[in-house]
Amino acid sequence: MSMIVRRLSRAATAGLVAAAALTAAAHSAEAADTLGSAAAGQGRYFGTAVAASHLGESDYAATLDREFSSVTPENEMKWDATEPSRGSFTFTSADRIVDHAQSQGMDVRGHTLVWHSQLPSWVSPLGAQDLRTAMNAHINGLMGHYKGEIHSWDVVNEAFQDGGSGARRSSPFQDKLGDGFIEEAFRTARAADPAAKLCYNDYNTDGVNAKSNAVYDMVKDFKSRGVPIDCVGFQSHFNSNSPVPSDYRHNLQRFADLGVDVQITELDIEGSGSAQAADYTKVVEACLSVSRCTGMTVWGVTDKYSWRSGGTPLLFDGDYNEKPAYGAVLSALGGSGGPGDPGDPGDPGDGASCTATYTRTADWSSGYNGQVTITAGAEPISSWTATVTLPAQQSVSSLWNGTPTWSGNVMTVRPSWNGTLAAGASTSFGFTAAKNGSDAAPTVGTCTAS
Q1: Catalytic status, residue 57
Q2: Terminus of the chain with fewer CB atoms < 10 Å: N or C?
Q3: pTM of the full predicted structure?
Q4: 266, 270, 285, 379: which is the annotated catalytic residue?
Q5: Which residues of the chain register pLDDT less than 70?
Q6: List 30, 76, 158, 184, catalytic entry
């Protein structure tokens, strides 16, 4: 898919996602049954880190597409992956993630532009002036490729030392360019894509401590001098030795009070059962209590691919089963629909039924718009599920008023906000499809209600 096509798709899906989020907020009394839809009802996103190499795994893709409203490429946008040789950019793996996210109406966080780690070998030996030129060229090259497509960028990542000093971390950028490299990176990033949110991202800054104080002082200075910074990311990697700090919410709030958004960017919590669930609840409740906490990202879809897999830190186990932490997060977001929940579309209620009918609402040489109307049976329903099977050649570029998951060319659609219907009442979802040489109509399967 070309960059121009991706941008057109992004513009369309961004409007649809925004409309869905506004509608979800207006219908807050209706319970949402996925992490993304529940978070949207709270005016937030709920995202995950994604590896391009796993997108071909059906359970991975299905869980990603069903549950999350934002993605962060785990490694595919880092310097070694995108500019392995100076001036020679490669975007194949990152494009795959962005294209997938756009096809599902998800936002994308860019991670990361300037970081001391995962640098290609040609960067570190450069002299100061050459390094400055290379840094700015890398920012412009990467952001230019995705201009208009990335919601937030981690412009600079992990630039402060651990421990009690609050000093800057030794790195090629710090050692050769000095403290000013962070400001320069942010100014270059603003010019490269004025619409993107620009974030500083770090770990062990979740509570008030020397490291978070140093970041706080930098952000306060930047805001006072007009340096373009829009958000601060808190990685929030927790375990028994580094638990959720008691002043977590207070720390998020003090940064927000500086006039920046705060985002939880790499959340994972080692553990299991009710203890892990309680810790996840603390994090979600802290974000919801800070109006400028715009969203949360867990660092991976499933425990088996986590960088901390031995600590089972995520919301889905290695078989993609929902863990107690999943139910706790969904409940904290105001949603419902966990295992055994009567509102789960997989557990139809007694007498609940619906029908699904298809209509082509617009047609042109290369594509068409389709609409599926869902009508409740003789009893009210609280949710519905419908399947649409497309001809093998066709592909869907956008979908509205529903949440899709994919298995091959079969699209399973659940409500985004419009699940509750009175007896005999109707709602609909629509989609835009590319014909790719086939003008055949899709097949709509049985509608399931609960």
Answers
A1: no
A2: N
A3: 0.72
A4: 266
A5: 1-32, 337-350
A6: 158
